[in-house]
Amino acid sequence: MADATEIFLGLGGDERQSLNLSRANRHGLIAGATGTGKTVTLQGLAESFSANGVPVFVADVKGDLSGVSMAGSSQFKHADKLEGRAKDLGMSDYAYSDNPAIFWDLYGKQGHPIRTTISEMGPLLLARLMDLNDTQEGVLNIVFRFADEEGLLLLNLDDLQSMLAYTAENAKQLSAKYGNVSKASVGAIQRQLLQLDSQGAGQFFGEPALEIDDFIKCDDQGRGYINILAADQLMRSPKLYATFLLWLLAELFETLPEIGDPTKPKLVFFFDEAHLLFDDAPKALEDKIEQVVRLIRSKGVGVYFVTQNPVDIPQEVAGQLGNRVQHALRAFTPRDKKAIKAAADTFRINPDLDVEQAITELRVGEALVSTLMEDGAPSIVQRTLIKPPRSRLGPVSVKERAIINSISPYDGKYDEEIDRNSAEEILAQKVIDATETAREVEEKGEEEVGKRSRKTKSIWEKAFSRGAKVAVGSAAGMAASTMLGKKSRADPMRSGVTSAVGSVVTDLAGPVAGRFVRNLIGGLMR
Predict the structure, then answer these.
(1) d(C-alpha 32, C-alpha 231), whole Å
(2) What is the mean pLDDT of the chain?
(3) Residue 242: enclosing H or E segment and its boundaries?
(4) Calpha distance 89→87 (Å, rounded)
(5) Nearest-CA neighbor of 218 among 408, 434, 54, 344?
(6) DSSP of 112-150, one letter per residue?
(7) DSSP strand E in 353-463: where?
(8) Which residues of 468-490 are buried (b: 16+ CB within 10 A; e: fewer)?
């Protein structure tokens, strides 16, 4: 068990090197070339935070971090090295132990699905995810604005595709109210959406949406849960990975209250392969990422970037990272030499250590360490032998993962997708209504048809009539799907039974709350 006020990192300069928990929300960096020990350092930090009651979120890029959920073993082929290092560091209490873990997966294959709605993601992040130009982003903003004003919930990609199809059909009317809406721009956005869907991104959008508080839980022993995102498949879509992480940060920022500098973080967040967050990002976006990172520490969230090369992190963001663990770098190219010098310049000078030379000489499991002391000043950099983790080094088996998933506190909460009435269904119904009304006008005359109530109910009327099952497999329904250019994945016979009050709250909360969150993120992103 780690000390109540600090996390032991290792021995350097014959002194204990520790991370002060009251300064752990001041962010950090773990850097180093492949094979130098970054993942082991990350794993050791994660289990120490957990032992101190701090929940952790970490992306498992290579699949081996899942082992943090299982205790290490003396039968492990390198157990003698781990135990020998623990002895060298004077860790008399060293013993193998597991950690409470929850597995997550955007694709829902290796853990609980993580979903958010299109409304919650908002046009700004979606535009970046789809590489839209300024004109196309402007059209996407109009689509969201129109959906908000009409009370249309945008939950999944189907809803957005339906809205785009409707926008293209009504471009002239919408242009008069909101500004120019060209069918060419709408078509470009639709093509990008299809590409996203083909990459599996459609599984990320929908309900039930993630409740961010579920990342901030402790088990019955007071240990923080380690939330492990299976990212090995996700890494094939680096833009989705980076956008998801940025969205998650924005959600945390919006949800959590201001608490200043707590005695220990409320959550620690590890960005593995951090360079993906900044690759091809415009300067304005980098500035806003820096702003989010700077502001989120007052919410008690510590953000730790993990990357091979410290120059991957923009200088403005790197300046916010007070706790640093630098593993070995290799000086093969001019860029490598630049990275070594840049890394050396970030440390508080140690007169007894040539930092630039040491970075190239560090052995596996060694690192240069400098952390923030209690007064907020960085400690003098020390060449440090990093402590060994107590959990397993290596991935869990499929069977072990299944068992851990089955005992998860969220088993059954997120696993089944919900597809309630939203923009797709409402727009389809409008097409159906228009078709039937046109037929009635032809049969009865416009004056007679004008006397009856409208076919599409208001948000309040719908709330009191959801007990009836709705079948959309009719000829009119199929005509609507054809006109909208898509096919719904919704169950056409699913019951819509819910209480009237609950319906009103649910329907109103989507557009209103979604607009509020997007406005907040928009303020950060602009």
Answers:
(1) 20
(2) 82
(3) helix 238-255
(4) 5
(5) 54
(6) EE--B-HHHHHHHHHHHHTT--HHHHHHHHHHHHHHHHT
(7) 366-370, 382-386
(8) eebebeeebbeebbebbebebeb
Q: Both tokens of residue 430?
A: 């409008």
Q: Are strands 323-326 and 6-12 parallel, antiparallel or unpaired?
A: unpaired
Contact between residue 48 and residue 224 where contact means Cβ atoms under 8 Å apart:
no
pLDDT at position 439 is 73
Of 343, 344, 387, nearest in space to 365 by CA: 387
Report the distance separating Cα 50 and Cα 72, nearest Å: 16
Question: At 104, which amino acid appears?
Answer: W
What length is written for the chain?
526
Mean pLDDT of 128-138: 90
In tens, the pLDDT along 222-234 reads 999 999 999 988 8
* CA 453 – CA 449 distance, rounded (Å): 9
Could you give the CA distance from residue 519 to residue 511 in angstroms, rounded to a whole number? Answer: 12
Quickly state the pLDDT bin for 235 (edges 50, 70, 90): confident
Before 123, cis peptide (omega within 30)?
no
Residue 240 CA to residue 233 CA, distance in Å, equals: 11
pLDDT digits (tens, 9 = 90+) for 254-281: 889 999 889 999 999 998 888 887 877 7
Closest to 291 in 3D by CA, of 56, 518, 526: 526
DSSP 218: B
Contact 229, 105 (CB under 8 A): yes
Residue pair 95/71 in contact by the 8 Å Cβ criterion: no
If you average pLDDT over residues 52-64, what whole number do you get?
93
Phi and psi angles of residue 430, each rounded to the nearest 5 degrees, phi first: -60, -40
| Distances, alpha carbon 124 to alpha carbons 192, 210, 271, 293, 525, in Å | 15, 20, 21, 18, 8
pLDDT surpasses 80 at 174: yes
pLDDT of residue 502: 38
pLDDT grade, residue 136 (50/70/90)?
very high
Q: 349: closest CA among 323, 329, 325, 368?
A: 368
At 303-320, the pLDDT tens digits run: 999 998 888 898 889 989
Contacts of 354 (CB under 8 A, 6+ apart): none
Q: What is the pLDDT of residue 396?
A: 95
Q: Are strands 101-105 and 112-113 parallel, antiparallel or unpaired?
A: parallel
pLDDT at position 114, please?
94
**pLDDT > 70: percent of the chain:** 81
